[in-house]
Predict the structure.
Amino acid sequence: MQQRCVIQRLSPDVRAALASYGAKATWPAGFGIYQRGASADGVFVVLSGRIVLRSRVKAGRGFVPAIATEGETFGAEGLEIAGRYATDARAEEASETLHLSGPRFRLFIREQPLFAQSLIGQIMAERTQLLDKLHELATLSVEERLIASMLRLADQQRLADGAPLQLGATDYRLLCELVGATRESVSLVFNRLVAAGLVEREGTTYTVPDLQALAARLGSAWMETETIVPLVQEGRVERAARA
């Protein structure tokens, strides 16, 4: 059976050590923290809430390569020389972050090498997640990418074992951007999952009662895929399905 992914996070001890080196900030829901192309400096650590990294594709549409929640980082482009942000960053809900500027990051490395090792390891773990997502985009179908994204959301919400995953209208729109597919494509997949009994729908709310059963449907495709699914064919699949 496919296991749920486990997202690495900074421990409370590391976050406590970082507190005296970074600048703490509170962001209201919907606030834009930075925009793509802006000059980047240092790295952010999420203390609470949810930060969505978004690339604008076209008017009304976007692609979300990553979501940063408690104990995760974002904006590490600021550790490059003359770095610039690669995405927009927006607080999806009321959030609190800690920002380490480049000089403060280097000071943290010198004075707290053991904790700094954990921070660098966290940044590298998140880079690995991005590489995994690129693999999914190149090799998995829309259904497989949707399931993988829902499993990640469940892990980020730290649901207890056996607890259902609930997705409201906002989560649905976010899933479309995480999957990198149109709402029509995602709607078709959800209809199949509802018909299979893996997802329950009530109005605009979707509930996944058994995450392990959903993971089992994904099977081994997450780790090993033989067939490459070109993204350019997605529109044709939608039209065929509607026909």
Summary: The first strand starts at residue 23 and ends at 27.
